[in-house]
Design brief:
By secondary structure, the protein is of the alpha+beta class. The chain has two domains: 82 residues, PH-domain like (Roll); 50 residues. Helices cover 37% and strands 21% of the residues. The protein has a four-stranded antiparallel beta sheet, with no helix packed on it. It has a three-stranded antiparallel beta sheet with strand order 5-6-7. Strand 6 and strand 7 form a beta hairpin. Helix 1 runs antiparallel to helix 2. The radius of gyration is 22 Å and the shape is elongated.
Length: 164
């Protein structure tokens, strides 16, 4: 199946409803900051001269830049990837796969920085890919998630024999 064919492959990929949820402004800002960290620290390290510009200090500055870049890159990697079977939530440090039926409610209160999912096991999971900072876009993405859960999140009814 080609990317632009508009159909699905059975898992929901290719269907507009199953677009990845990402922060509109936070993601490119974090990736840009990561590149700035790495590039800036490398430039400063390699262009420095004089006392204190020994190899150990240069390596330390580059390592500091790489560490800052990795942290910023992780901030940019937050997302939620829906498909026909469920939702994969990628936050700063963790990735969690959920079946649609595991998600009980979606909360996105006026003071919440991102969406929270109440799960059937009693946990609450933040979905940092849908952010308040994105304004109306973030609200629209939260509504899209709610509609996916309403459509796909119902647990299947057990097969009961009909009474005779």
């Amino acid at each position: 199946m080609t990317a632009g064919s508009g159909g699905t492959d059975g898992l929901g990929r290719g269907d507009e409803r199953f677009r990845t949820f990402r922060g509109r402004f936070g993601t490119p800002t974090a990736y840009g900051l990561a590149l700035l960290f790495v590039g800036g620290c490398t430039f400063v390290s390699l262009s420095s001269s004089g006392t204190g510009a020994d190899t150990a200090n240069r390596v330390a500055i580059i390592v500091f830049g790489l560490l800052g870049g990795v942290i910023a890159w992780r901030f940019g990697a937050v997302r939620a990837m829906p498909d026909g079977a469920g939702l994969t939530v990628v936050n700063y440090a963790k990735r969690r796969r959920l079946a649609w039926a595991e998600i009980v409610t979606v909360r996105f209160g006026p003071n919440d920085p991102w969406v929270h999912l109440d799960l059937a096991d009693g946990d609450v999971l933040a979905v940092m890919g849908i952010q308040r900072a994105d304004g109306e876009h973030g609200m629209a993405e939260a509504r899209r998630l709610v509609s996916l859960i309403a459509e796909l999140g119902e647990a299947p009814e057990p097969n009961h024999p009909s009474p005779k």
